[in-house]
Fold this protein.
Amino acid sequence: MTRAWRMAALAALIVVLVIALTPYVWLFMTSIKSRLDALADTPVWLFTPTFEHYPKVFLDKGYLPMVFNSLVVAGTVTVLSLAVGVPGAYVFARHRFPGKEDLFFFFLTTRMAPPISVVVPMFLLFSYVGLVDTRTSVILAHSTFNLSLVVWMMRGFFEDIPREIDEAAQMDGHTKAGMFFRVLLPIAAPGIAATAVLCFILSWNEFLYALILVAFESRTLTVGIPGLVTPHGTLWGQVAAVAIVATLPIIVFTFLVQKHLVRGLTFGAVKG
Amino acid sequence: MSVRKRVDRLLDKGVGPLFLAPSVLLLVVLLLGPFIYMVVLSFTDLSYALPGRDGNFLGFDNYRRLMRDDPVFWESFRTTLTFVFGVVSTEFVLGFALASLLFHQIQRRRFVLTLLLIPMMLAPVTVGLMWKLMLQGEFGMLTHYLRAAGLLDPQTALLGDHRLVLWIVMLVDVWEWTPFVTLVILAGLLSLPREPFEAAIMDGARPWQVFRDMTVPLLRPILALVALLRGIDAFKEFDKVFILTGGGPGNATELLSIYTWRINFRNWDLGYGATSAFMVYLVVLILCAVFYKAIYWRAGGGQG
């Protein structure tokens, strides 16, 4: 490529990055602006920062428990989905049995199932057994899509491990279960870590299930944020403060799993 | 010792079913159960808002009503189709362009890519709020600059205008998901073998010819995958639009998922709501089957 072309390409990339990042930067600036600056007629880019919104919304308005709820839900969902899903993925990768691929397709449909369709009957069934407005209800709902994510993603990671390793382990006298726990799991550990992070993000970011299933005590952060938006006078500083707290851990995590992101988000169909 | 060995052998046989059973069980209970219940509900008149409608069997009345007497459902269907085709095609064109750009940008690729991922990793609710803040009618940052540039008249609010609002919502979706398309197409481009391309250029092929006759055909399976994945996701879209407009003004942005939410959790018309939910499920299942076939196609009919 010629020099001029290269400069043009670089310029285009810079424009793209500005478009991609400005909304988030603006959100962050809003979270540390005074009310006057945030509502100014002309957008204010330079201002004296204030950190009053953060304590106000998390301590005075009681948004801190929601952070806790989100952490508990996303954490439990991740552990549950991995504990149940990783052994299942191993079976898909190594065993042969009739109807295997059909069962695998069933797992895919559960991952893709539209939340709005699942949550309608789920809400009714959960209310019959008294689960509505508990963290358990959200944990169960989120494990549906995360479990199949684990199975789909981990099958690929297990298939990447050469079969000779299984054979060698069996020669060493390991039982199948022993081989799985002592030999294969350690090898698949990076894949498990990436899957765990993705599970956590998906549960942490989820909105619709949580919106329907919990109303008061067990609200997660994503459900709590829209509660601050009212038709008459939204406190945008506080909204932005909560949104920033809700997104910062995700951004950190994104950097951690970037390498495996393509695989996770395409159900293993594309290995990034 | 020999007893232990026999026990071990027995356990070996049981590992498969034992390892698989919990996940199948959990999904059957949590998804198949509600699914069946939804189908049952769709044949009843259950409603939490009207007296006397406590789940009487209706036969196919709900389906007849949906097919014949509910123009709002079909308008919502049209809105959803517009949304899906609009965003997926736009994200495709932009994503392909961006991926090609990054493909040639070797030095800063990783850094740029990481930053580009941020929009799609944020919670969709946050994305909706961010854009609501920027598009706000009185003090919104984007609204202000558009007005200052003379592109928007002072009376119009972008999210309050009947004709504009669907396009604005689609634009936000394009902002959020173009990075995903870029990421996957770039992964595809990087996995292509280099030799045929070098040979073609040596033979004097023009860049456009190389793109049309080599890049696109070689990438076709991956392109199909991205299109389907994005299509399914866009069809299910709820969070952002719910926050940005709630389906309004009127029902200008009432996607199927928002329509279904309204019937169920605003009107509490649960029997009819289940019918609508079932329709959404059906479309996704069909798309899902196509997606699965596409994976097989890519793997050449082998292991998915």
Summary: Chain B touches chain A through 95 residues (CB under 8 Å). Chain B has a mean pLDDT of 88. Residues 2-41 of chain B form the longest helix (40 residues). The radius of gyration of chain B is 25 Å.
